[in-house]
Amino acid sequence: MGEIKSFEDLNCWKMGRQLRNDVKQLIIRFPDFENYELVSQMRRASRSVTHNISEGYGRFHHKENIQYCRTSRGSLYELLDQFITSLDEGYITEEEYQKYKKQINDCLAVLNGYINYLKKARDNK
Residue 28's domain spans which residues? Predict the structure, then answer.
């Protein structure tokens, strides 16, 4: 896993950061009437991904860290549903949806790997 000195060194956090920045660029083109609905929800869900990874890292206990990572995972699934809504509303194309779906699935794979790493570390104590 390499040397981890900060949550910023975690690949799952780095990928979540990229996703958050991509969402930020996407939602600026959504209709104004979605600002307090879908735009706000997507902004919060995308931020929640990295916020929970970093908060869990700061807990210094494997069990708590795992729980925060699970919350982050839930936010990724919430964001996927919001991309589906964006597609259904015509705010993004099928091609864009597939791109974001892959990005979320890649984030999920790395985050699940980190959760498994934490579980093994917890069990080997």
Answer: 7-123
